[in-house]
Amino acid sequence: DSIVDDERTSNTVAALKQGILDNLFYVLGKRVEVSTDMDHFMALAYTVRDRILARWLTTREDYAKNNVRTVYYLSAEFLMGPYLASNILNLGIDDVIRQAAGELDLDLNHLIGQESEPGLGNGGLGRLAACYLDSLATLGVPAMGYGIRYEFGMFHQAIRDGWQVELTDYWLRYGNPWEIRRPQACVEVGFGGHTQSWADSFGEYKVLWTPDEVVKGVPFDTPIVGYRSGVANTLRLWRSEANESFYFDRFNSGDYEGAVGAKIFAENISKVLYPNDEEIRGKELRLQQQYFFTSCSLQDMIRRHETTGHSLENFHEQCAVQLNDTHPSIGVAELMRLLVDIHGFGWDKAWDITSHTFNYTNHTLLPEALERWSLPMFQSLLPRHLEIIYEINSRFLSLVRTKFPNDEARVARMSIIDEHGERYVRMAYLACVGSGHINGVAKLHTELLKSDVLRDFYELWPEKFINVTNGVTPRRWLAVANPEQSELMTSKIGHDWIGDLDQLSKLERYAEDSAFRSEWQGVQRAVKVRLAQYIAAKTGISVDPSSMFDAQVKRIHEYKRQHLNVLYILTQYYRQKKDPTLEISPRTFLFGGKAAPGYFMAKLIIKLITSVAEVINSDPEVNQHLKVVFLPDYNVTFGQLVYPAADLSEQISTAGKEASGTGNMKFAMNGALTIGTLDGANIEIRDAVGHENFFLFGLTAAEVVARKAAGYHPHQIYESNGALREVIDGIASGRFSRGDGSLFRPLVDGLLNSDPYLLFADYQTYVDCQDRVCKTYRDQEAWSKMSIYNAARMGQFSSDRSIRDYCKDIWNITRFEIGAGL
Ligand SMILES: CCc1ccc([C@H](C)CC(=O)N[C@@H]2O[C@H](CO)[C@@H](O)[C@H](O)[C@H]2O)cc1
């Protein structure tokens, strides 16, 4: 990139060595002799950061100079993972810094392992936001990420006696070298209180909101450096702190409880990430968190807009805001409040700006994940916003009545206010009404949004709906996670694929090259050995790298059907027990994933996996061919070990339930073959890699709906399928739970009586498909050919392609080259 580094930040081995020593001494106050691994990591991190700062400042100056249109990605979660390795890659200093560290007797890989990852997300949604920040900076798109700087991120998972145990995530215990606190840019956010309204001298309707709690939002900025683009965008995460003045008044007036209460209230807001994935809990603190970071971000955007000499009239021309699911959708009401109450705009002008500023991405179809807040809670926490939402809603419903006269049922269905029970605000509807574009995250998902969950809105505003299929960054998920495969590919097609993943298609012709295939197999072997060592170190279980590594790593959820995977494992188990001479191709079943702490069935599924593992791994009649491992504490760092090492990727959700999936993309990019249903992005992956290179099974989304509509009786399948019955009876008998037949009763009863995710309906086609997998794996030449085709044809699943789609179809932004000017 075009940035010129001065001698202090030049990328020579000497300058890097000096940088490490200087940071160790001047920043950490340590002499080499007495410094620890963590000190060395910190010194290295600061030395890398030093080389990002110039890009960061230059980027910001160029953006200001060229008053660029900017993307603001609002997300309650950013699952960034450890920064060091990907920052080194993106700066293009891998070789020199490895040499510099080596000459100081420091092992770069070991130091990279010292970093505690900022687990500021649950799963797919949070990680997608992180991949998108990498692509935005790599493509040179002016952008900022806005979120919450949780003091405690996603809990760490330990497995005790086969059960998940949650441990606090002190990710900040050693400090975070990548962030800079910006106290001068803090803002205030109010909660609760009451509103007063009056007509001013021009008869204008005025409202004053007097909150009874005011907290301070303090931003922490982290540079997001692009891959060899010279651009460094900003991730601004907000921390809530007590608002001094607010605090001291009470203190000085002797109201100590009040004072301390205010302090606790304030600091609680950004204290901890809610570990629920796909299930709302309706907790007030969660709404406080959402309003807090959204208000901080919008106030910050308005301040930046005005300080760069712009008038708010054209706010929407300069700012494109993406709502990452409904979690920041309160922003629609907050921007209206800021424009009308604070900046004196009339309603219509304010609405024109607001509805042209926001865009909404939906990430789930599960009804239990669609956020709705009770009116009483909304009234007490955000009284002014509720008034504004009522106004938005009444104007919206009159539009609905105009477009669909005499259809009050539709009006009730579409109202932002759900009149049922204690009445609720439906956040997805507020997002749809207040956004210019609504997108799903895979073709099938977007179609289901249009035909089902958001059907009424599609009939009203078809032009708003668009699909942008997810993507993942090849920097972290290939170049950093799988240097072996990366070097082999680069040796054949050069390294441009890292910044332009479509170049992978040049690999296709090597699939037919047996020499290349054996190199490919060699790489796969090396990566599997690395994972086997990690597994042995973490769990004490030894796995055979020559066995097929079959991996299912993702959040534990019934719709993702980890328990269907277990049904197949037990089918193999019973086959082997019945005939110990049966030649079953050796397979290692790898599981990883956290369950939301309050999600009983998900926790029971983890217990089922660990219990089955205990029986199988200790049974000499089967453990030569079958091994089951539940790897605790699945996170980004762990993912970087598993995705490259897997031979088979399990993407077996009930069709119509997984919005997209992104793990499926990471596996296939790394050469794993997929066994999966026609769900989410599996469909597009299968079309890209070739139907012959994908193991498909199961009902389609339409068949699932039809099967349920026709009346689904899982018990009948149980009775008519001997293998299934044997497996279910085995689980129910206590054979896999030390004789306790009651342990898995809830799971077994759930399957026999309702089986809402149709495991029984897909059982036989899944088992048959797995048998095809076994057969294919025996022919390693055929397998590695399919593996190479998979990797070669994954270009479109780069998050760079997704971001290009967003720029073209939603944000109307063209690329911006540093120094090039628009
Ligand atoms: C309110 C609790 C809550 C928290 C998070 C969520 C997320 C939307 C859940 C999530 O991560 N969804 C996943 O998003 C990925 C990125 O688009 C998709 O690839 C996955 O299919 C989807 O499950 C829903 C509800």
Overall description:
It is a single chain. The chain is an alpha/beta fold and 822 residues long. The chain has a domain at 481-495 and 512-804: Glycogen Phosphorylase B (Rossmann fold, 3-Layer(aba) Sandwich), CATH 3.40.50.2000. 49% of the residues lie in helices and 15% in strands. Strands 1, 4, 7, 8, 11, 12, 13, 14, 18 and 19 form a ten-stranded mixed beta sheet that branches. Strands 22-21-20-23-24-25 form a six-stranded parallel beta sheet, sandwiched between helices. Helix 3 crosses helix 19 (474-480) and helix 6 (124-138) packs across helix 33 (799-811). Ligand 26W binds next to helix 6. The site of the ligand CCc1ccc([C@H](C)CC(=O)N[C@@H]2O[C@H](CO)[C@@H](O)[C@H](O)[C@H]2O)cc1 has 23 residues, from helix 6.
Outline of this structure?
The protein is of the alpha/beta class and 822 residues long.
CA-based shape = globular
State the CATH class of the domain at 481-495 and 512-804.
Alpha Beta
Described by strand count, sense and barrel closure, the largest sheet is: 10 strands, mixed
Q: How many whole angstroms does the radius of gyration measure?
A: 27 Å
The whole-number mean of residue pLDDT values reads 95
Number of E-state strands: 25
Figure out the total of helices. 33
Strand content: 5-15%
Task: Estimate the helix proportion, in percent.
Answer: 40-55%
Question: Could you give me the name of the CATH homologous superfamily of the domain at 481-495 and 512-804?
Answer: Glycogen Phosphorylase B
